[in-house]
Amino acid sequence: MNNILVNIFSFSFVVALIATTRQIPVNLYLSGLTIFSFVTFFFGFCATKLKYTNLLFFSIYIIIISFSGLVGILSENNVENILRFYIILMVVGGAVIIRPLSLRCLRVAKWFLIIQALVVISISLYMTFFGSAISGDIRHFFTSKNLGDIYSYDGIYYRVQILGNAILPLAFFISYINFRVYKGPISYFVLFSLSIFFCGNLTYIIGCAIFVFTIECLRSNINNLVYKSCSTGLVFFVLIIIFRHELSEIIDIKFSVDNSSMGIRFLQIEHLLSTFKDSYYSVLWGGGLGNFVDGRIADRVYSSAIYYELQWLYVLNQLGPILFLMLVLIHFIMFLSVVHNKYVVSAYILYIFSSITNPYLFDSSHFVVILILIGYDNYLKVTYVKQ
């Protein structure tokens, strides 16, 4: 019976991975992704022999989100959205304690990540050398199909920000760990480095740079650590001096309040935090799961929105700061009880950093990333203990 559950768990993970990266010609909606994530979690949970401490912490976790769901019901929030966010929070929290993915699933995940990276690189290079004349049509195709966006500020460097990119930073992290720590091939590291560059997401690039520095620090003794820190600081200082004009232009583009991506995020921060001014109770338990934050900020109207660039902040709005911090603390306690490899822990922390200004926390991508990291950590334990 357990083998059947494990097989269903593995199959549903692959389906969830396909849905997350949209590598099939079907545009699944949020509810579809939520269902696939729940099915994966359910069969993984049933096939897992849980430790008492993890079961205790997960029970507390469930009580907290159940309480927030009750607040949402009493506040007459949309029932469908209450259920959606309840499931999302449950699977993201519970993903850290269910059985690790098999090596076969990890290999399947690796090939999906490779495909995603090759698609991003190919589109960007094609647009640079052959597609500038039809860039408007290509961009319209992706945006109209809700597949993402492709754009350029100079007609040379095209940023390919499409669905499935959310897990590319994870691919970069794992490839760098394999290359630098476990002497794996450099080819995967080069491939995923290029894909991060052609994504054009500034937070991804900064997160990956910090990750490289973190791994090198973890591998170094004190003397080497001081040397590498000073060398890295000097290199960054020289690069900033050399590219100061380009950096100034990027900052102007990114942080223009009205139209830039960061400008939109600042408006959303103001919008999502505004509800805490209305009631002291909202600090304790927020607006409840499924809470809509209707209103108008600048020239943007938010009505019944459940999708924000800062999705984690929307979850904080629903739970309230206190319950949100409790969930995050419990989540990391459970994660650290399972994952002991310092490089894998660093990968998860930097994934959160690279996603914090993007809508990739507390969604199906977050769930898939945790499963891959837990499986990868288990693979390292088995492989290098045997050796």
How many distinct domains?
Answer: 1
- Please provide the count of β strands: 4
Tell me the span between the first and last alpha carbons: 32 Å
User: Strand order, biggest sheet?
Assistant: 1-2
Estimated radius of gyration: 21 Å
Q: Compute the number of helices.
A: 17
Mean pLDDT, to the nearest integer, reads 80
Stretches where pLDDT is under 50 for at least 5 consecutive residues are: 23-30
Q: What structural class is derived from the secondary structure elements? A: mainly alpha
Let me know the largest β-sheet: 2 strands, antiparallel
- What sequence of helices (H) and strands (E) makes up the elements? HHHHHHEEHHHHHHHEEHHHH
Strand content: under 5%
Description:
By secondary structure, the protein is mainly alpha-helical. The chain has one domain (2-257, 307-386). Helix content is 71%, strand content 4%. It contains 17 helices and 4 strands. The protein has helices spanning 2-21, 30-46, 52-74, 79-94, 103-129, 135-144, 168-181, 186-199, 202-218, 222-242, 244-255, 261-273, 281-285, 311-319, 321-338, 342-355, 364-386; strands at residues 148-152, 158-162, 295-297, 300-302. Strands 1-2 form a two-stranded antiparallel ribbon. The longest helix has 27 residues, at 103-129. It is globular. The model is unreliable at 23-30 (pLDDT under 50).
